[in-house]
Amino acid sequence: MIPHDKAAEIVRLAQAEKWPPGTIASQLGVHHSVVSRVLGQQAFAKGLIQRPSIIDPYLPFVIETLAKYPRLPASRLYQMVLERGYRGAPDHFRALVARHRPKPVAEAFLRLRTLPGEQGQVDWGDFGKLDIDGAARRLFAFVMVLSYSRSVFLFFSLGAAMGAFLRAHVQAFEHFGGVPRTLLYDNLKSAVIERVGDAIRFNPTLLDLASHYRFQPKPVAVARGNEKGRVERAIRYVRTSFFPARSFRDVDDLNAQALVWMKEVADHRPCPEDRHRKVCEVFGDERQRLLPLPDAQFPAEDRVVVHVGKTPYARFDLNDYSIPHDRVRRSLTVVASSTVVRIIDGVDEIASHPRCWGKGKQIEDASHVQELAALKSHAREQRGMDRLHHACPSCQRFFQLVAERGGNLGATTVGLTRLLDAFGAEALDAALTEATAGDTAHLGAVRHLLDQQRQARHQPPPVMLHLSDTARALSRPVRAHRLSTYDQLRKHEGGHDVDP
After folding, report:
1. What are phi and psi of 78, to 5 degrees?
2. Structural domains in the chain, sorted by start
3. pLDDT for res 48
4. The whole model's pTM is what?
């Protein structure tokens, strides 16, 4: 860029004195391209001012239409001026419309300040997917921020259902050591079920939680995210300060790391309301103004009514949980925390299982299956195949090869089930895979491969004793024999006794 006065001198010498560009360049000590550029810009600006355009007769109509419909597409406006006689090209017309389209007025917002302990803001953040035992589970982050001190609570969960929503609130209140008087929500289904204008219907479970902890839930207006800007910025802070390039074993490990980050990083950042103090220092003042915690925690669990068919399993969250066989064909209540799934029939708890976060799994209580198997003795072979199918995915191809070669499926099922009990699912699945790949799909080959695995790990042989089979064998009648027949073992072929 050249100084404005030198550019004006170039224009004066060219237009008033009629100097050629080369003379101007040599006399003023500038490059000839600079002179050409300055003179070209002057000619272009002069042309914009003086050159008439075919759009000129239609400009009043265009400006009036855009003032009435500021978001009207240029393509539709082009069709409208074509009907009125315009013959220009659409690309040139689109550039003219962009020049005359009224710019939207930017909205200004007031800075909202709150009193200590008065308000908190709540929201979920989506942090992608995790592959857990064959299931793609979404990872959500629950964030609650206190509006006065900007103290942040962070809790990760495999889903944003009501149970996780409640558990996160309870843990947030325990973390802060108190409850803010008002909590702001956007239009989460966990908070607001229905909204028509200013009429709002809250989720009844959220109202129960609010009544227990004595806070007031308050939803923000539709499309007014600025009303809860503190939690929006807190989620952005989590995305940039905590989550990137972080490794973790599971969600529990991730939450443990989040707790350390809250105490050592988030609480020691400068408070936006008072840059001379840390968040933890301002929170020390705010904590005294929070509502006290009640004596008991709110029961934060998922409660789902499920219908059980003719098989003794209750389906919940992509998996099947076993129940006693006499509770089939009825509706039961599943009460699930993050670690335990309990199944209720009326007021009786009929089953309790560790929660599985995988997909398509059968979580069984051995007593439930054994009782049914005792009644259905003819179905033991199918039961064994079903158990092997869920424990060892490779068994399906193995059974196909056995059937193609005319093998005994029943004996193979019994043998593999015993090997499953003795060696475990992981070892048996590896042996079945190797046997199938080596085209040795028979029980002896699998047993040999398992023994090789055991010897390579320097493990003792497994004890394959089935007490139920032994007890049944001992109960069978035994025909008595004459003991004199054993005396024959003491004699030679020639009739002489053998020395003892």
Report:
1. -65, -40
2. 4-50 (1.10.10), 56-100 (no CATH), 119-287 (3.30.420.10), 302-370 (no CATH), 377-456 (no CATH)
3. 39
4. 0.60
